Amino acid sequence: MDKSMMGDLNSLNQADQQRMAAMIDQLQIRDSLRMYNNLVERCFTDCVDNFKRKTLDKQEETCVTRCAEKFMKLSMRVGLRFAELNQGAATQD
Amino acid sequence: MDKSMMGDLNSLNQADQQRMAAMIDQLQIRDSLRMYNNLVERCFTDCVDNFKRKTLDKQEETCVTRCAEKFMKLSMRVGLRFAELNQGAATQD
Amino acid sequence: MDKSMMGDLNSLNQADQQRMAAMIDQLQIRDSLRMYNNLVERCFTDCVDNFKRKTLDKQEETCVTRCAEKFMKLSMRVGLRFAELNQGAATQD
Amino acid sequence: MAAAPTEMDREQIFSMAEKEMEYRVEMFNKLTHTCFQKCVESKYKDSELNMGENSCIDRCVAKYWQVTNLVGVLLGNNRPM
Amino acid sequence: MAAAPTEMDREQIFSMAEKEMEYRVEMFNKLTHTCFQKCVESKYKDSELNMGENSCIDRCVAKYWQVTNLVGVLLGNNRPM
Amino acid sequence: MAAAPTEMDREQIFSMAEKEMEYRVEMFNKLTHTCFQKCVESKYKDSELNMGENSCIDRCVAKYWQVTNLVGVLLGNNRPM
């Protein structure tokens, strides 16, 4: 989530700015917990298909680890591109 | 969202009715933003599959436009049928 | 939802404990309505594929009933296992 | 004539009304997306709904409603919808 | 004995507790739906869970829990779950 | 210099800002998951994004943005995004 999206923050007084910042913090906490849940669901769905044992085998563990690491790298990259587009800084093909 | 669903609004005094109306407005704003997000996700998923260029080609643009227009027409029709059912006005086959 | 997850409830005074309990109740109501919506969507998607008539036929009705009953049984079982894991009571394979 | 609701009742009325509305909005959204999936072919050859799609939508809404009621009864939810 | 929490602490406790519970409810819902998908065959031949489905569910929950912990470690989240 | 906002204005500013941020967070999440689906092959042979995946992601984000704007215009939403 990008704090720079709140361009009109400056028209508020100090107490209101604090309140707005607190609201943004709250949304970020909720968002990161949701992201966590979504990531677990996706990597589990893609990597775990065998229910003959109740513990992850080595292959499933490797798959989940790679899935999560790929997702986090992708998420960072998407964040950068998204911020560029938000600033109208997109260049041509 | 259908304001008529709130039949018990009348048992409230005027201040409460205003508060309830404000709440409904808030939910409608949130709902229309969500609908927007869902519509974009669906039409993107159905129409865009080629990532050799960074701009939509004509065919993708046409597909997205039709997808969104069909969705909006469907959404209106569903809203009408839904309201009829809410009023117990459903007729037989 | 498991009320026992709120271990730090005890550090709060009585008014706060009541407020926390009310919050938990609110989340449970919202959660059960969401579960209802999700269950309807899943069983409808899995069981209803024929739109030549506007009423459910016997086969669809049976399918929906079984789907919902299976889901409720599964949900209870998952809740038990989940609570065991939350208490670190998971046994070996 | 009913007595005026107390402060506590009033808060409960608002809170329940809010959840009820959220529930209905969510149901409407799920219904819309499910019937889009079931009735509209995803080639999007034009931007109109044809007659087949329109009658499919009407029946889809009617059946979704019946499934909602059926599941509601199974969950022990006795009021309509 | 711990000092009484200040007004600010108290609001933060409520706010964090609410998010924590929302998170757990969401996890429980995702877990339930994912294990339904993985373990219950969608023909719905009867309304009981058979033995195979039941043991699949138990293992599915256990594995989901392990994936949650594994991903939590990768995200730098050190507390259990 | 602009006049100080009234109490009502202020509440509306907060309320709209909150919805706007929720909307953007949701858009970002959908975008991330959609581009993961479209660009990352689900075998997960290693934990790095390769060059092909990276350029797919960049183009996916750019196209998602364009679809957002296009749909926004169709919905009668005139402001950018």
From TrEMBL, chains A, B, C:
It is a peripheral membrane protein. GO terms for biological process: protein transport. Keywords: Chaperone, Disulfide bond, Membrane, Metal-binding, Mitochondrion, Mitochondrion inner membrane, Protein transport, Translocation, Transport, Zinc. Its main location: mitochondrion. One of its GO terms (molecular function) is metal ion binding. It comes from the Eukaryota. Coiled coil: none annotated. The keyword Cytoplasm does not apply. It is found in: Mitochondrion inner membrane. It holds the Pfam family zf-Tim10_DDP. One of its GO terms (cellular component) is mitochondrial inner membrane. Residues 23-84 form the Tim10-like domain. The keyword Transmembrane helix does not apply. InterPro entries: Mito_inner_translocase_sub, Tim10-like, Tim10-like_dom_sf. Heterohexamer. Belongs to the small Tim family. Mitochondrial intermembrane chaperone that participates in the import and insertion of some multi-pass transmembrane proteins into the mitochondrial inner membrane. Also required for the transfer of beta-barrel precursors from the TOM complex to the sorting and assembly machinery (SAM complex) of the outer membrane. Acts as a chaperone-like protein that protects the hydrophobic precursors from aggregation and guide them through the mitochondrial intermembrane space. The twin CX3C motif contains 4 conserved Cys residues that form 2 disulfide bonds in the mitochondrial intermembrane space. This is Mitochondrial import inner membrane translocase subunit. It comes from Capsicum baccatum (Peruvian pepper).
From TrEMBL, chains D, E, F:
InterPro entries: Tim10-like, Tim10-like_dom_sf. Gene3D superfamilies: Mitochondrial import inner membrane translocase subunit tim13 like domains (1.10.287.810). GO terms for biological process: protein insertion into mitochondrial inner membrane; protein transport. Heterohexamer. Mitochondrial intermembrane chaperone that participates in the import and insertion of some multi-pass transmembrane proteins into the mitochondrial inner membrane. Also required for the transfer of beta-barrel precursors from the TOM complex to the sorting and assembly machinery (SAM complex) of the outer membrane. Acts as a chaperone-like protein that protects the hydrophobic precursors from aggregation and guide them through the mitochondrial intermembrane space. Transmembrane segments: none annotated. Residues 14-72 form the Tim10-like domain. Pfam families: zf-Tim10_DDP. This is Mitochondrial import inner membrane translocase subunit.
